[in-house]
Amino acid sequence: MTFSPSVSPEIFALRPDYRALSIVVTNAKCGPSDDESQASLLSACAQLDAAPWADAHLESWREAYRAFGAKPQRTPCSAEALRKRAQRDGSLPLLNAAVDLYNAISLRFALPIGGEDIAGYQGSPILVRARGDEVFETVQDGAPREEHPEPGEVIWRDERGVTCRRWNWRQGVRTRIEDSSIAMWFVLERLDPMPIEALYEAGDQLIQSLTIKSPRLTSQVTLLTP
Q: In terms of pTM, does the model score above 0.90?
C-alpha cells in the first residue's frame, strides 16, 4: 500500500501559514516505556519554556481552533494539553517508548505531534474539513463508542473514517501506536511564528531518538505545503 499523507487546499485557505512535517518510519521497534523514554519526558518537562516562540505558537493554535468553531479552552491543541498536564503534575504518564519520545519533543518545541500505527489505516491520511457524517471510533467508560465531527471541523481521516478530531486534539483508537507497532507515521504541525528550521530540528530529534532503539529504522520525511 502506498502511504501518502496530504492536506486539502481548504486547510491552507483557513491557515495559509500551516506547515506539517510528515515522517513515515519502518523497521521500527516500539516496545514498552523504558529508562530512555522516561528520561526524555522528565527532561522536557523541566524545559517547558526553552522555545522562545512557545507561548506565541500556542496562541496561534488557539486562533486556528476558533476559526473552525472549536473552543480551545475546552478542547486545546495536543501540545497545549500536554503542557498544561506537565505544569500541573510535573511529569506525563508513561505510555510506550515511541509515544513517550514524541510527547517529549512536543513539549520541548511547543509543537503538536501525532503518532499513528500505519497498520491501522485504510488508505492514506488527509487533513480536511468535516462534512459531519464521518465516523470517529473512540472509547468512553471503557466501552467502544462512535462519534461524528461537527460540520466544518478540521479532521485527519482515511477511507474508513476520522483518525483525529479537531485538527490534533483527540486521536482515535484504531490507529494509535501500540508496543508491537513497527511501521509508524508521525505528523509535526506548525503555524507562525514557529520557525520552519525548528520544525525540521524537531523532526530530526524524533528520528534520532527512534533510531537509538531501532538501528535498522528507515524514514521518509516530507514537508506538506500548499
A: yes
| Mean pLDDT rounded to a whole number for the chain | 96
- Which band of pLDDT confidence, cut at 50, 70 and 90, is reported for residue 141? confident
Whole-number pLDDT of residue 49: 86
Cβ atoms of 99 and 177 within 8 Å: the answer is yes
- d(CA 108, CA 201) in angstroms, rounded, equals 11
Rounded Cα distance, 36 and 43, in Å: 11
With beta carbons less than 8 A apart as the criterion, state whether 104 and 41 touch. Answer: yes
The per-residue DSSP string of 78-118 comes to HHHHHHHHHHHHSS-----HHHHHHHHHHHHHT--EEEEEG
pLDDT at 1 over 80: no
Coarse DSSP helix, strand, coil percentages of the chain, rounded to the nearest 5 percent: 35, 25, 40
**For residue 155, what are the contacts with CB-CB under 8 A and spacing of at least 6?**
127, 128, 129, 130, 134, 136, 149, 162, 163, 164, 165, 166, 167
Q: Check residue 142 and give its pLDDT.
A: 84
Please tell me the predicted confidence (pLDDT) of residue 140: 86
Q: Which residues of 36-45 are buried (b: 16+ CB within 10 A; e: fewer)?
A: ebbebbeebb
Among 81, 80, 86, which Cα is nearest to 47's? 86
Of the candidates 80, 113, 100, the one whose C-alpha atom is nearest the C-alpha of residue 38 is 100
